[in-house]
Amino acid sequence: MANRDTKANGGGERARFTRRGWLATAPGAAVAGLAMTRSDALWNQAQEASPAAAAAAGPGPPDPTKVPGRFVSEVGSRAPGEEPRRLVRSLALSSSSRTPIHELQGTITPADLHFERHHAGVPEIAAEDHELLVHGMVERPMVFRMADLKRYPQASRICFLECSGNGGGAYSRNRMPTEITAQQLDGLISTSEWTGVMLSTILREVGVRPGASWLLAEGGDAAVMARSVPLEKATDDAMLAYGQNGEAIRPEQGYPVRLLLPGWEGNAQVKWLRRIEVTDRPTMTRDETSRYTDPLIDGTARQFSFVMDAKSVITFPSYPYVLPERGWWEISGLAWTGRGRVTRVEVSTDGGRSWTPAQIEGPVLSKSTVRFRHLWRWDGRETLILSRATDETGYVQPTVQQLWEARGERTSYHQNHQRAWKIAADGTVTFGLGELV
Amino acid sequence: MRRLALGVAAVAVAAACAPDAPPARDDAAGADASSSRLFGFGSPASEDRIALWNIDVKPDGEGLPPGSGSVEDGRRLYEVQCVACHGATGTEGPNDRLVPAANWEQWPSGRTVGGYWPYATTLFDYVRRAMPQATPGSLSDDEVYAVSAYVLHLNGLLPADAVIDSASLAAVEMPARDRFVPDDRRGGPEVR
Q1: Residues 125-164 in B contacting A (C-alpha not used; CB under 8 Å)
Q2: A119–B130: do the CB atoms touch at under 8 Å?
Q3: 0.80 exceeded by the pTM?
Q4: What range defines the domain where residue A176 resides?
Q5: Do A190 and B19 meet the contact criterion of CB atoms below 8 Å apart?
Q6: Are residues A218 and A337 in the same domain?
Q7: Which of A305, A127, A156, A287 is nearest to A220 (CA)?
């Protein structure tokens, strides 16, 4: 908490500094220098004086109605004190950072808070220099520069992107955490509006030869990340995305262009995409054999488990929130499925004995997150709250016991089972799945 | 009603064939493959251009370059290039184990080259593209063969005097070769 306060003060300092700095910049000169009127001068004085005026106003919160506000600016910033942050796992080349899902509203993830998972860091790529090579079983092997890709008809869609390792921290029977935030456990999920060209458009341009059934997607990072993708998905809804929430895709999400495979595990959606090879079989890269496969209870290992099954997560109340008093509280969270639309989210406030449909806020988009809410009158007694999502195929988010039974306990991906939060009588909230296993 | 529908269809066909109609447009709802004409943005890729980036190796060995390497050369390279992150015997870390130290399903110590990888070709492919992690792409093809041979030797899959090339690498029989099965999750009520 102390740390937080320090940061908030820092934000205030920055804001004041920018305010003064602005007057000296070129666009400011147009007002201050060329066409300075008497009222301009007074406004500028007020910009300079307002922090001092606020300080002189005495104790208590400053009165913003007595001090002129800040001028317009070229790029906005968050309010001082509002400092959601990604949670960085470790400062290493192969690492991740998680989205603060417990601090966000609605469904869209601000681009600078989108989770990260890189295998050899974030490459620095200039859009002018970037090329995408498409070859293999095609009639016309081609190189596309970004200007070429952007000239093709555009498409935009909102969808979630989730790492298949998300939630792995709550699968081991003997190591169920209690003091873990929703961000720590499930922060490898983000939702954005993506813009780009449909991969089917590009594949038609190069002319896929008969007999082709897969492609290899390869990145231009230092891991030269490579994953095989069935052609069926590539021609269904795959996109070469260069836009994210209205702006250019962020470097951490694959600037200048990434593969987007709506509803599929993040690792296959290769970032910094530089090569697509159309093939008649999978390449069997390291990240589709050694990793991102699922050892099952029967001695086999499931491979190419691309689709992210239905899942829901309560983001409020969750650790480390505290409910200061009994009474009405709105339980709220996110639900999603890689198999289409979420059709139902249910909430239990009695440890899974009874379930009530939660309100789902539209629009309910295919392969995107929905926000669910459930008004709950807490009676002040200890309890466990849970959520479970159902998708349009009739799949119901399973219990951890159901997953253990179906797969065994040694899988490390696709752990989409129901989560539980324990509300103690004093209102403290902890991760509560351990109470149910 | 029927007449009207026919009329609309005729207009649609005429539009698709008109000289100034755009090529087919795809959107998030799926592809429309009805037009065979192309936009043509982008440039043809020459054979040399493709060869420059076409680095992947298929499980049957397709894509493996000429060259060879011995377990012995690989040992010397490993001790300079890999040991700091993967340990003297491939089990000490601090980064990924390259030799199993536990049952094959055990994450992460069992899911390693000898215990879990279905294809030896993947080792060449991965080391050439991504290792050593701080200086990727710095080894020659012969060096990648050599260090791959040594990692396979550490896993008991090649004798100490082995020398490998494209044919012999693709022929290495990996213990986990037949362990992998396709995803059988299909949605619906069943949990898999």
Answers
A1: 125-126, 129-130, 133-134, 136
A2: yes
A3: yes
A4: 111-302
A5: no
A6: no
A7: A127
